[in-house]
Amino acid sequence: MTTPPAADEHPRPATSDTPTVREARIRRHGHTMADGRELIYFDDIGSTLPVERAADTRILDPRPDTATMRRDALTGEWVSIAAARQNRAFLPPADRDPLAPASPTNPSEVPDAYDVVVFENRSPSFGPATGDARGGDPTESASVGLERTRPAEGRCEVVCFSPETAGSFAELSPVRARTVIEAWADRTAALSALPGVRQVFPFENRGEAIGVTLHHPHGQIYAYPYITPRTRQLIGSVREYGPGLAADLLASEQAGPRMILRGEHWSAFVPFAARWPLEIHLMPHRHLPDLAATTLAERDELAITYLRLLRAVDAVYDTPTPYISAWHQAPVHEHRDDIRLTLQITSPRRAAERFKFLAGSEAAMGAWIGDVPPETAADTLRAALARADAEHTDIPPTSPGSPQ
């Protein structure tokens, strides 16, 4: 085990253009797992957990080899063939939860008690090898060829929001939500500094209908060796429209009928061309390339705003709603003045007992058909937000992220 440094002693990698800020009251302790993977504890403000943590004493098999990416000659996109992921846990019982603090009967991935913890995925889609900083983005190759391959270099990390074996982000306290935000910002900066990483993507899959394999409240972070296809499409749109696309889009939504809430630093809305029955976009009011570039005040408001939005999603129906929550961040080395940080929450749930499945048009051709008018969805979410705010008393009306 690596001796945990004091919070202020740990190196703080930064993105290429933005100094990394940190909330000093959220303690950070780095450790090394039994097979060499990195693990980091993030302790809540006011946490009573001790600084010292138990070592990971398990006997583990060697880490799997780095997967191989194959390039689709028809689209130019890379596909990681990560066969080791077939062995990952699938909906284990609570007493065998691999993300819970370890116990004598459950030798989990986390050796000790925690508030929030981040660690390298045991069966990653990218990594454990990282690339060469001089290697460039493999997608930028101009030539089309057959059976092109490259190592799937990069990093995949797991972010545990709570030691509880069940629940969701919406059930966290505001203090715990703030710790998760700090962890996302910290890891975005650290992963952006790894050689060969081109884009960093924090996300959460929630609900069996989405395909989750663990009920434990958690998310993931992928550090890709290329710029993702979705971001490349956005770069093309900015190139065609101009660098003011994000600012103009936000101003248009703020003046329109699809707004859900507006705080001092963040606004949430249903987008004009929403694809999913429930879809929310959250954008900062100033240009930010990624979470590492946020100020402490922006993180404070984000923690409250994000909680309110997820609670609203759960208040639409009588049972919790599955969703994907995706942080779209600018690439690490380019387009950082063009691509604005945006959270996109999407759910396929179109009625209490009905879901939207990707059929022929969407899955095969990428031609989407919306089932619910975005204005109707915005009305539904505003009403759900009011119910959720009335139900939860842990966020006072004067908190950051309260409606303006």
Automatic annotation (TrEMBL):
Gene Ontology annotations of biological process type: galactose catabolic process via UDP-galactose, Leloir pathway
Domain Galactose-1-phosphate uridyl transferase C-terminal stretches: 257-386
InterPro entries: GalP_UDPtransf1 (IPR001937), GalP_UDPtransf1_His-AS (IPR019779), GalP_Utransf_C (IPR005850), GalP_Utransf_N (IPR005849), HIT-like_sf (IPR036265)
GO cellular component labels: cytoplasm
UniProt superkingdom: Bacteria
Keyword Electron transport on entry: no
Pathway, per record: Carbohydrate metabolism; galactose metabolism
Cofactor: Zn(2+)
The keyword Acetylation is annotated on this UniProt entry: no
Catalytic reactions of this protein: alpha-D-galactose 1-phosphate + UDP-alpha-D-glucose = alpha-D-glucose 1-phosphate + UDP-alpha-D-galactose
GO MF annotation, one: UDP-glucose:hexose-1-phosphate uridylyltransferase activity
Sequence ranges assigned to domain Galactose-1-phosphate uridyl transferase N-terminal in this UniProt record: 70-227
EC number, UniProt record: 2.7.7.12
Annotated segments matching region Disordered: 1-21, 91-110, 125-149
Pfam family, one: GalP_UDP_tr_C
Keywords: Carbohydrate metabolism, Galactose metabolism, Metal-binding, Nucleotidyltransferase, Transferase, Zinc
Family: Belongs to the galactose-1-phosphate uridylyltransferase type 1 family.
PANTHER family xrefs: GALACTOSE-1-PHOSPHATE URIDYLYLTRANSFERASE (PTHR11943:SF1)
Protein name as it appears in the record: Galactose-1-phosphate uridylyltransferase
Biological source species: Klugiella xanthotipulae
